[in-house]
Amino acid sequence: MRTYYFFPNKPIVIITWTGKEPHLPSIMLNGHMDVVPVFEDEWTYDPFGAEMDDDGNIYARGAQDMKCVSIQYLEAIRRMKKENLSLRRTIHISFMPDEEIGGVEGMKAFVESEEFKKLNVGFVLDEGMPSLDNILPLYYGERIRWGILIHCPGQPGHGSLLLDNTAGEKTRKILNKFYKFREQEKKKLQENPNLTLGDVTSVNLTMIEGGVQNNVIPAEFKLVFDCRISPSVNLEEFEKTLDEWCKEAGEGVWIEYQHKDSLITPTRLDESNPYWIAFKKASDDM
Fold first, then answer.
1. Is 164 annotated as catalytic?
2. All domains of the chain, ordered by start, with CATH?
3. Among the four 38, 218, 263, 270, which has the fewest Cβ within 10 Å?
4. Is 34 a catalytic residue?
5. Is 100 annotated as a binding residue?
6. Is 98 labelled a binding residue?
7. What is the pLDDT of residues 203-258, one digit of tens each?
């Protein structure tokens, strides 16, 4: 086991099981240790207490996202080693920090390092989902994440006035655009039973910033939206739509992209993909 620090208080832990042919490209089983914030009053148990109930259910922040997957990696290897099995390729199990806030001080720093290159990684399995039954869902595509910060500047002044061109008016117009679009996507999902969440685009207002005190019209409001775009959406057209919404909202409204993934084409599920062939054969054998 090795621990690396590219940033203070953010350890990267690597556990290695050396294969019979260590010169071959290795396999990495990746997971992350960090979690998002909690609302403690919504929890049955202390979210950081790792409590187990009488049925064996574990209540702990991050138990599902995503320590349960990392534990499954470890348990699978434990069983194979107990049966004295050996693999051709070396396996690295990685535990990363910083995933929930973009991975800049976690995986991004690691993959750019000499330490990562020395692992000779040829294939990675990353975060997945648990299944409560014997059906294993296969996800071959993923929505594209954009973190959108919209600046709504306007004429500041005293709260007793009825000024034109205020930040609040522009904010209302932006919110109307986003929530009308959100309702359209919800309606698609509700009316078509063949669609899943991955087939539609979700937008959610996550932060609002602005104002100095309750009798002053502020110079700006900032709105942050978490947006997960369906792979079927044309990203250039979607960005043009957002720009048009800003233009229609009023003078000076503009977008700052805090996070902007590009399109990753969904995985091919046919004979052209050697991973799919191997995965399907293993599943059929099971």
1. no
2. 2-137 (3.40.630.10), 144-260 (3.30.70.360)
3. 270
4. yes
5. yes
6. no
7. 999 999 999 999 999 999 999 999 999 999 999 999 999 999 999 999 999 999 99
